[in-house]
């Protein structure tokens, strides 16, 4: 997308606003599938939690992707978007047996990550195919909050509990058709991932009727010029060779699965905001925008880096700015960042705003959540309206229980 496209969108739909470039999503999908073109059966399940707008789910469906879901609500969104139940996998954490049963009744692939629910579900529904999420005890991920495969993680069943799993499977007679892992996000070291993969292959040998092995995801994307990223092509070449070898050992062709979220949508997204005020103190120049961590929490939550450009003055002289929001507490997007000179009324753009940005937005400070726009085939399509005041109150119940006497102060 060009700056003029983004400026036109900000003018037409207002700010702040999220914009997604469909061409980048498509190219990322093709890049990942191309890296594993020598695998006979490949399944890419898009991680819905990254960006759950129905238009994005429809786009993924049109590309041939399935969906990775973590809540019954995400499952329903996928079905509403036209995705077949057989193309959805449900990988929750800590949810009730009732929710798992509700999703299973929809015909969705179930993935269970704890012994208690595995035994309860297997006892009641032994014929329903189930995938098991194991914890390989491998530390991987760019931040402790997104590293989920280590020994102290709440996710998955420990590889040291494989005997417990086998006992449950034998006692219930349940059907295990898949093995799954997810070590974390922002993985850089391919060898660490391949090491974890070997653990998964060894685990898979304990089960005779597998249809697939799901390796999760966590591929790192670049967040700034010159930033390092997961070498998907090298990874694809190495894992393909090992996976095809495993299929021969196993005695049949099974499906290789991944659950990419950030990799597919992060770089497609731009978050546009208007500069309300430029404020200079004794040591800092602040650019205050018409947004806050209620719309983009990743810098505050993960200490993540988002490139910020002044699309109103892209060729201007660079100065140092701290970009801050309007939330009434510390609300900093960037500190002393080199950006083209900013004036009040300029539109700035945050890059890599496609994944875990709108999906983590809130109404904190009773602010409205922004609109979402999809840029597709050279045209801007509104895919979510900006919230209005009625959206803040529509689910609140106005109770008339306070008399003037009770409310008065004596």
Question: Which key terms come to mind for this protein?
Answer:
410 residues, alpha/beta, TIM Barrel, Lyase, Ornithine Decarboxylase, Chain A, domain 1, 2 domains, nine-stranded mixed β-sheet, 13 helices, pyridoxal phosphate binding, diaminopimelate decarboxylase activity, lyase, amino-acid biosynthesis, PLP-binding_barrel
Ordered list of secondary-structure elements with their pairings:
Elements: H1 3-13, E1 17-21, H2 22-35, E2 42-47, H3 54-63, E3 66-69, H4 72-80, E4 88-90, H5 97-104, E5 109-112, H6 115-124, E6 130-135, E7 157-158, H7 162-172, E8 176-180, H8 190-204, E9 212-214, H9 232-250, E10 255-258, H10 262-265, E11 269-280, E12 285-289, H11 298-301, E13 308-310, E14 318-324, E15 332-340, E16 347-350, E17 371-376, E18 379-384, H12 389-393, H13 404-407
Parallel strand pairs: 1-17, 2-3, 2-10, 3-4, 4-5, 5-6, 6-7, 6-8, 8-9, 9-10, 12-14
Antiparallel strand pairs: 1-11, 11-12, 11-16, 13-16, 14-15, 17-18
Helix pairs in contact: 2-9, 6-7, 8-9
